[in-house]
C-alpha cells in the first residue's frame, strides 16, 4: 500500500515530460512556445512540422496511458488509477520542467482516460470527430468531448472514484481552454486549417 502513495508523484512526472517542446528543440533547434499559439501540444507542433506533430500526439497520449498503467502495476485499486490520470493531465498542463506552463492536456487526457475506461473514450472520440466535422473548431470539439467524458464513464458503470478524478481531469482540460471559450463566444476563434494559427494544443 505504501508504494501506492507515490502514484500521484510518478504520474505527474510522467505527464510533465514536454514532448512537443523537446522534439521541436531536437529537430529544429527552436522553441515551440515562440510559434503559433505558443502551446507545446500536438496541434501547435503540427503546424511547425506535420510528422513531429503526429509524433507529439502519440507521445503525449502515450504518457497519459503509461501513467495509469504504472498506477495499475503499483496498486489494484481503481481509485489510484483515476488519481494517476488526473495527475498526468496536471503534469502536462503544469510541467515542472517548463515553469509550470504547458499545454492543454487533450492528448494526455485521451491516453490516460483510454487506460482508465476505454468504452467512454471510444464514445468521446466519436463526439470529438462529429463536433470537429460540423464546426471545424478543434477547441470546440475538445471541450465538448472532454466535458462529457464523466457522463459516458457514469453511463458505462464505472465506480465513483473514476467519475470524480476523471471529472477533475476533464475540468482541468476544459478550464485550460478558457481563452478558446472566450473566442468561441465572440466568434473570433480560428478554425482548423493546415498551416494556420490555432490556439488548441
Key structural traits:
201 residues; mainly alpha
First-residue to last-residue Cα separation: 36 Å
Query: Compute the gyration radius: what is it?
Result: 16 Å
Q: List the secondary-structure elements in sequence, H or E.
A: HHHHHHHHHH
Approximate shape: globular
The major pleated sheet works out as: none
Q: How many β-strands, per DSSP?
A: 0
- Structure classification: mainly alpha
Unreliable residue stretches: 195-201
Average residue-wise pLDDT: 92
- Helix content percent band: over 70%
- Relative strand content: under 5%
The total domain count is 1
Would you give an account of this structure?
The protein has 201 residues and is mainly alpha-helical. It has one domain. It has helices at residues 7-16, 19-28, 42-48, 50-74, 78-93, 106-116, 118-135, 138-155, 160-176, 178-186. The chain is globular, with a radius of gyration of 16 Å. The N and C termini lie far apart (36 Å). The relative contact order is 0.15.
Task: Provide a short characterization of the protein structure.
With 201 residues, this protein is mostly helical. The protein has one domain (2-186). The chain is 70% helix and 0% strand.
List the SSEs and their pairings:
Layout (H helix, E strand, L loop, with lengths): L6 H10 L2 H10 L13 H7 L1 H25 L3 H16 L12 H11 L1 H18 L2 H18 L4 H17 L1 H9 L15
Helix pairs in contact: 1-4, 1-5, 2-4, 3-4, 4-5, 4-6, 5-6, 5-9, 6-7, 6-9, 7-8, 8-9
Amino acid at each position: 500500500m505504501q508504494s501506492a502513495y507515490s502514484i500521484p508523484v510518478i504520474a505527474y512526472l510522467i505527464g510533465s515530460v514536454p514532448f512537443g517542446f523537446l522534439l521541436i528543440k531536437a529537430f529544429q533547434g527552436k522553441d515551440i512556445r515562440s510559434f503559433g499559439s505558443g502551446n507545446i501540444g500536438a496541434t501547435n507542433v503540427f503546424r511547425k512540422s506535420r510528422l513531429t506533430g503526429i509524433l507529439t500526439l502519440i507521445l503525449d497520449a502515450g504518457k497519459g496511458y503509461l501513467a495509469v498503467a504504472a498506477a495499475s502495476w503499483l496498486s489494484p485499486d481503481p481509485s489510484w488509477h483515476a488519481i494517476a490520470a488526473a495527475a498526468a493531465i496536471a503534469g502536462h498542463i503544469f510541467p515542472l520542467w517548463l515553469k509550470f506552463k504547458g499545454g492543454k492536456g487533450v492528448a494526455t487526457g485521451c491516453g490516460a482516460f483510454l487506460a482508465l475506461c476505454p468504452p467512454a473514450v471510444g464514445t468521446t472520440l466519436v463526439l470529438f470527430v462529429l463536433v470537429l466535422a460540423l464546426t471545424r473548431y478543434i477547441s470546440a470539439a475538445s471541450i465538448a468531448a472532454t466535458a462529457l467524458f464523466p457522463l459516458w464513464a457514469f453511463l458505462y458503470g464505472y465506480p465513483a472514484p473514476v467519475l470524480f478524478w476523471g471529472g477533475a481531469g476533464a475540468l482541468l482540460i476544459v478550464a485550460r481552454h478558457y481563452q478558446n471559450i472566450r473566442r468561441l463566444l465572440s466568434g473570433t476563434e480560428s478554425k482548423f486549417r493546415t498551416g494556420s494559427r490555432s490556439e488548441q494544443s
